[in-house]
Amino acid sequence: MTESDYKNLLKKVMDSTPKREVVEDRFKIPKADVFYEGNTTVIKNFDKISSAINREPDLILKFMLGGLGTAGEMSGTRAVFQGKIPGRNIQDKIVEYVDTFVMCTECNRPDTHLVKQGRNLLIRCDACGAFRSVKSRKRKVVQQPSQSFKEGMVIDLTIKDIGKKGDGIAYHDKYIIYVAGAMKGSNVKVKIEKISGTVAFAHIVEV
Do 38 and 88 fall into the same domain? Predict the structure, then answer.
């Protein structure tokens, strides 16, 4: 076989091989379409969010309810939460869910699915084949409460809503604060008892 024959044969093989299009689009976490109905917060596009990250809506909802410290349920394609929750808090929880339960630590792609092995929940990447435990995700830096907001401090708040258990709900910066025995619309002086993530609990102090 001459060099010319070899080149012609190689060209035919290359021309007949299907060209695989490589898409390098960066994965974008869906943005929650949030609106309020009375004393509830609604994510209108919850079904599209769960579809985009390839996870069951009930699993995402359970994670968010625990992180936001409230109650809620699915209503058709929407997710409904008790109380008026700031949109940025909701988006932060969606980002945290994706980081913990979706993204591959090896190739940083979202093409994964959950696998249950005994009591362990694993994440398998369909793109690179990597396995990891849900708990072995890159260690997140735990944000400590800012110096201007900490347990034991006394602050003035306006009660915006009433929670499912009857506690008043107020907001301070990024925090949702539950105040025992507070009435909606009242201005109260409270003492912060406990802070957990972006949720805090307080009680009214006598002036």
Answer: yes
**CB 162: neighbour CB atoms within 10 A?**
17
Cα torsion angle, 164, 166, 167, 171, sign: positive
Q: Report the domain count for the chain.
A: 3
Chain centroid to CA 77: 17
CATH classification at residue 82: 3.30.70.3150
Q: Is residue 180 part of a domain?
A: yes
User: pTM for this one?
Assistant: 0.60
3-state secondary structure of 13: helix
- Residue 85 identity: I
CATH code of the domain in which 195 resides: 2.40.50.140
Q: pLDDT tens per residue, the chain (207 residues)?
A: 566 665 565 455 455 544 444 344 567 888 999 999 988 999 999 999 999 999 999 999 999 998 888 899 999 999 999 998 999 899 999 999 999 999 988 888 899 998 887 778 889 888 888 888 887 554 444 455 555 788 999 999 999 888 777 888 888 887 889 998 888 888 999 999 998 878 889 999 975
The parent domain of residue 200 ranges over: 154-204
Element holding 16 (H helix, E strand): helix 3-16
Q: 5 lies in a domain?
A: no
